[in-house]
Write a structure and sequence with these properties.
Layout (H helix, E strand, L loop, with lengths): L7 E4 L5 E8 L2 E6 L4 E5 L3 E3 L4 H6 L5 H9 L11 H4 L4 E4 L2 H4 L8 H21 L4 E5 L6 H11 L4 E5 L2 H4 L3 E6 L8
Parallel strand pairs: 6-7
Antiparallel strand pairs: 1-2, 1-5, 2-3, 3-4, 7-9, 8-9
Helix pairs in contact: 5-6
């Protein structure tokens, strides 16, 4: 493509454009809208070619026809959500060991508990980072030691409250955590 002084050009792979002010062999100098002079190789820029692209894009339809199609009021139907379901936790984490590891062989009970607590901590921090408000940790009933360890973990965060999850859905083996959003740090 040949360029001449005064052509308006766009720089490929950058958000720059400007007017050609100097041509030296294959080096083209442009002045951008802020008055800066920048030099590029001829293969790094393209010349603005009028409105031919716009005309070809809308050759089969008029612009007014396209706009009216976009603006037409289509009533969107949202799926009905029962009031109870609206308040269901958005994230569930099953801490049963067979969901977390392929094999429990050669693991001490301490190793198992560490994996469960580490998973809970990572999932809780993920939920905080993604601004997920509710998370249910399914820990099972068992002897209750995992539940106590989880409560100890949750108490370390000042922006969460936790309580037994919905009994009808989970029985006694789950804890729901509510994460407060937009908590300002103490000065």
């Amino acid at each position: 493509m040949s360029f001449k002084i005064g052509d308006y050009v766009y720089v490929l792979d950058e958000a720059l454009s400007g007017v050609v002010i100097k041509i030296s062999n294959s080096e083209i100098t442009i002045e951008d809208q802020d008055g800066f002079e920048l030099s590029f190789s001829a293969h790094e820029i393209v010349k603005k070619e009028g409105d031919s692209l716009r005309k070809s894009a809308f050759s089969s339809k008029s612009i007014n026809q396209v706009l009216s199609e976009k603006e037409s009021n289509k009533k969107r139907t949202l799926p009905k959500v029962k009031p109870k379901e609206r308040f269901q936790p958005t994230m569930e984490v099953d801490l049963h060991l067979h969901h977390l590891v392929k094999s429990e062989r050669n693991m001490t009970s301490h190793d198992k508990k560490l994996i469960q607590l580490d998973t809970a901590k990572h999932k809780l921090e993920f939920a905080m980072q993604k601004k997920i408000q509710k998370i249910v940790f399914i820990h099972g009933v068992g002897e209750g030691t995992l539940k106590m360890e989880l409560e100890y973990l949750f108490k370390r965060y000042n922006n969460v409250k936790f309580y037994d999850a919905d009994y009808k859905k989970y029985g006694q083996g789950a804890t729901e955590v509510y994460i407060y959003q937009n908590i300002k740090p103490h000065d």
